[in-house]
Design brief:
single chain, 649 residues, mainly beta, 35 strands
């Protein structure tokens, strides 16, 4: 079991692959607050990030949405999707302010514990800033103020956070507020978005911590995210969204090798509305709204036994999560109302002896779907037992090789099983439900090699996932279009390479993905069905930099290469057919720099798309297809300069 830890959060894979960790400060300072670009710098991971929308959808190894990748904020699965009009998407849409992100863990393949419940291809967890990130050890107060201003629509951003704790560390609290203003921008060809385009989120975050003893800790987190944005190119409707969440968690570690317990309970309410406003006062979708309520809980424990020449570790527990989508019938559009509940138990063991590490385990995942079809209540449920095995051999202190096998399952969603159809789905107005949908299953194999020593690291992973019952939006045997299980096996395979170095004077990193994803392309791809998440054939990020002023200053450059890809788009409003459009490869150059002026004061700057290149960005949907019924769309963002400062006190 390989772990990646930051503070109280832990993400685990069930293979020998490492968990990629993104630092929140780098997202802000080096990637210009662009979470999507930061994720794409990770081998094997990509995003769907529409050019005129703040949402992020994480793609891992060619799979995305519907829970195939469990994308979370502080451990809460983000399941919201809106099919309520132009620009609607079946993608799981994640809304968050990068100013409050302290880090992100990206686990590829089978994932252990609660994070792996119902996930087919991996998990991504975006973690928000905590008390220990603001208050130094031995101190009682601390805070951070961050401001930035930019060109080409990046009008400004601000984050203010403060925290306190008692002298003995028993009590602690945090409060933060963050937001940014984005307006119309130009692509590399000088084409500008609509004058009405805007993206203006505001987020309030509060945390409390109580440690009655060194063995026990309680945490409470509350967050409220609100945004009004206008995706004028892809949607044509103003969106009002709000995400409210509460998390209560507990950790208990009395020093007994058999007890290292963690528990969590969470609730989230994600709502949306299409209001009138400047630039939008008419349209048949105005007033449409809905809410996606999420509830979950999990409990896990780690036990350690010393056997022979090594330690035997056991990780086991239970998890439950549900999301209940509700909407007014008169404004639902194609959104299907209903509830998906997932529960599971898991058990994993790991043992290290000599130069060998061994791991294996099982988990049982169960799901239940509830909805109403033609006035009748409908319930569907199923479950599956999944296993995993992994072995690693350490050639020496620096080199190791591993191999793994894991089974995973992904339940159908309410959207897929109870899709309500309508005029933009088929030439008829049939109710296109499919209560007979079966869960997707995957068998994933990995072979890898890793190298690591001080200041230098590298790794390569060869993977293949064979997926049965892949769910796609396609014409069924009765001539109607609905979500169906695809016949045969869908194979996702590729190789992921990553390497980096860090010396007193220079630093750099490389990530390279060579993918061969065979996701089936529906005849109706693009007809409101943004499920086509195929990765580019290949993509890479090369980052090189130099340290100055005894390491207090850094200047770096980044090369982003994305190979040929395709995007789903409309072809006709007559028969509601769709197709895919090929997009050319492209290379983009960025610059960034930072200067630690003093212990508490830092300046930073970044230049995105240094040479103001025009390109059609991969994975961004209709807004950048270039050949849709909605016009040529907008290319990738043109040259954008951002200047900022961070003050810690």
């Amino acid at each position: 079991v390989v772990e990646g830890e930051e503070g109280e959060a832990t993400t685990k894979t069930l293979s020998g692959a490492s968990v990629e960790e993104l630092e929140g400060a780098l997202i802000v300072e080096q990637y210009g607050n662009d979470i999507g670009t930061a994720v794409r710098a990770t081998a094997g991971a990509f995003t769907r990030s529409p050019a005129d929308s703040p949402t992020v959808t994480v793609n891992i190894r060619g799979l995305q949405s519907y829970g195939r990748v469990n994308t979370m904020i502080d451990g809460i699965p983000q399941t919201f999707r809106n099919i309520s009009g132009h620009g609607g998407s079946y993608d799981d849409q994640v809304f968050l302010d990068p100013g409050l992100v302290i880090g992100a863990d990206i686990a590829k393949g089978a994932v252990a514990g609660a994070d792996g419940l119902g996930a087919l291809a991996g998990a991504a967890n975006f973690r928000t800033i905590g008390i220990d990130d603001l208050v130094d050890a031995g101190e009682t107060t601390g805070g951070m103020a961050r401001l930035s201003f930019g060109t080409n629509g990046n009008d400004g951003s601000a984050t203010l956070a403060g925290a306190v704790q008692s002298k003995d560390g028993t009590w602690g609290g945090l409060a933060a507020v963050s937001g940014y203003n984005h307006g119309p921008f130009e692509d590399g060809a000088g084409t500008e978005t609509s004058e009405y385009y805007k993206d203006e989120p505001r987020t309030i975050l509060a945390k409390m911590r109580y440690r009655p003893s060194t063995d026990l800790e309680f945490n409470l987190t509350a967050q409220d995210y609100q945004n009004t944005f206008y995706p004028t190119d892809s949607s044509g409707y103003i969106w009002d969204v709000e995400r409210k969440s509460v998390i209560a968690d507990m950790a208990y570690n009395p020093g007994d090798p058999l007890i290292d317990m963690k528990a969590k309970v969470y609730w989230q309410d994600m709502s949306f509305n299409f209001p009138t406003g400047e630039g939008k006062t008419s349209g048949s979708y105005l007033g449409r709204n809905g809410t996606d309520e999420t509830f979950g809980a999990n409990l896990c424990n780690r036990s350690k036994l010393s056997i022979a020449a090594g330690d035997l570790l056991f990780d086991y527990g239970v998890a439950y999560t549900s999301n209940d989508f509700d909407t007014e019938e008169s404004t639902s559009g194609a959104n299907a109302a209903g509830k998906l509940s997932k529960s599971g138990v898991f058990f994993n063991a790991a043992y290290a002896i000599g130069d060998w590490d061994f791991g294996g385990g099982v988990r049982y995942d169960y799901y239940q779907l509830d909805s109403t079809v033609d006035g009748e209540d409908v319930t569907r449920d199923d479950g599956k037992l999944n296993g995993n095995l992994v072995a690693r051999y350490h050639l020496n202190d620096a080199w190791s090789v591993y191999g793994s096998y894991a089974e995973t399952m992904r339940a159908p969603t309410v959207t897929e099983m109870f899709y309500s159809g309508g005029s933009h789905a088929t030439s008829s107005s049939s109710v296109l439900t499919n209560p007979d949908l079966e869960a997707e299953t995957a068998d994933t194999f990995e072979l890898g090699v890793n190298f690591g020593r001080e200041g230098l690291w590298a790794g390569a992973t060869l993977f293949q996932s064979d997926i049965e019952n892949f769910i796609n939006y396609e014409e069924d045997s009765d001539g109607n279009v609905r979500f169906i299980n695809t016949d045969g096996t869908v194979t996702m395979k590729g190789i992921e390479l990553s390497a980096g170095f860090d010396t007193e004077r220079f630093f750099g990193s490389l990530s390279l993905t060579l993918a061969d994803t065979e996701q089936p392309i529906s005849n109706n791809a693009g007809v409101g069905m943004d499920t086509y998440g195929q990765l580019p054939d290949d993509y890479a990020t090369l980052d090189l930099g130099v340290k100055l002023l005894n390491g207090d200053a850094r200047v770096g450059g980044r090369v982003r290469y994305v190979g040929e890809s395709s995007v789903a788009t409309f072809t006709s409003f007559t028969d509601y057919s769709g197709t895919t459009v090929d997009l050319a490869s492209y290379t983009v150059f960025d610059l960034y720099g930072s200067w630690q002026v003093s212990d508490g004061f830092e300046l930073y700057a970044s230049v995105e798309n240094l040479f103001d290149k025009f390109y059609r960005e991969a994975g961004t949907g209709l807004a950048t297809s270039g050949e849709s019924l909605f016009g040529d769309g907008i290319g990738g963002r043109g040259r954008t300069v951002e200047l900022g400062m961070t003050y810690r006190f």
